[in-house]
Amino acid sequence: MLTLLKLLQDGHFHSGEALGAALGVSRSAVWKQLQHLEAELNLPIYKVRGRGYRLQGPLSLLDCDALNKEGSPWLHQVCDSLDSTNAEVMRRLASGDAPPFAVIAERQTEGRGRRGRRWVSPYAQNLYYSLALRIDGGARQLEGLSLVVGLAVLSTLRSFGLAAAGLKWPNDLLINNRKIAGILLELVGDPADICHVVVGIGVNVNMQLSPEEIDQPWTSMQSESGVLVDRNLLVARLSACLQDYLGRHQREGFSALREEWEAGHLWQGRMVNLIAGVHQIQGRVIGIDATGAVRLNVDGEERAFSGGELSLRLSDDS
Q: Phi then psi for 55, rounded to 5 degrees?
């Protein structure tokens, strides 16, 4: 089935006879595989008499060999389908795989974001990427880490010409108030000693879903640029940016990157509601502190907030 998908990924029409010859099977066997593609991967197949078959649009499939060519900062392990890439990294760490390594999937069946929210993960359209890191030296090495990852993702997006992309504290990236990427960090082990961090990154790349299928405003790289994005190139650039920013964070600490992060924050100076469970605090964003906590002016008093269950929303009067 994957061989057939590679033949169709250009988005052009291919006759059943040509597909059968390339696969070494009958035209009826080709038809059965096409039906399976539609049902299993939710990929619409257009059928036109006299022209053959094509996908709804071209795909950019991941290529494990291309990703692991010489110069790659770490091994990339490409999977066809996973529950989630973060969960797979945790399983591999538990079985003894040594970080750093990255796991990427064509799709996720149980993709998730912060606070347990579902991350929609259609086949071969987006980037589902998780990186395993070993952290030595205790919890101080974790300060601002998710924000540093955000800077790496932002740099990657802007390298594709998406100049309007920006950060939203703590773990989202937006374009025109529509989400294009999110980050989820999960800790394994003892944060006071040696531990592992799983850096999960989701990017909307070539997604073709209708807006109603996602419960928040979203956009994609293809929607913003107007062209199909090469996901292998995206992975290569993201890994290189991650290596750069994570290295700087390790050498210099988060304080050295604080000013750059604030420059990329879309909501600097804006009135926001800080949401913590059922509680809300209204204030104006001042910036972040040396640990990555958000600094708000609340009724004339500066206060700093951090924590995995916090989120920001723009106030109506911002």
A: -75, 165
Of the listed ranges 144-148, 155-159, 230-234, 305-309, the least confidently predicted one is 305-309
User: CA 198, 75, 258, 287 torsion: positive or negative?
Assistant: negative
Whether 248 and 256 have beta carbons less than 8 Å apart is answered as yes
Residues designated as active site: 114, 179, 313
Contact 205, 168 (CB under 8 A): no
Half-sphere exposure of 105 (CA within 13 A, CB side): 23
On the question of pLDDT at 210 being above 90, the answer is: no
Q: What is the pLDDT of residue 231?
A: 96
Look-up: residue for tokens 């269950």? Answer: 309
Tokens encoding 134: 């070993």
Q: What is the model's pTM?
A: 0.91
Spatial separation of the C-alpha atoms in residues 70 and 281, rounded to whole Å: 50
**CATH class for the region spanning 267-314:** mainly beta
230 has pLDDT over 70:
yes
Domain ranges of the chain: 2-55, 64-262, 267-314
Residues contacting 282, CB < 8 A, separation 6+: 271, 272, 273, 274, 298, 315
Q: What's the residue count for the chain?
A: 318
- Overall fold of domain 2-55: Arc Repressor Mutant, subunit A (1.10.10)
Q: Which numeric CATH code is attached to 64-262?
A: 3.30.930.10
pLDDT at 193 over 60: yes
Among the listed residues 211, 221, 200, the one whose alpha carbon sits nearest the alpha carbon of residue 114: 200
Cα(154)–Cα(162) distance, integer angstroms: 9
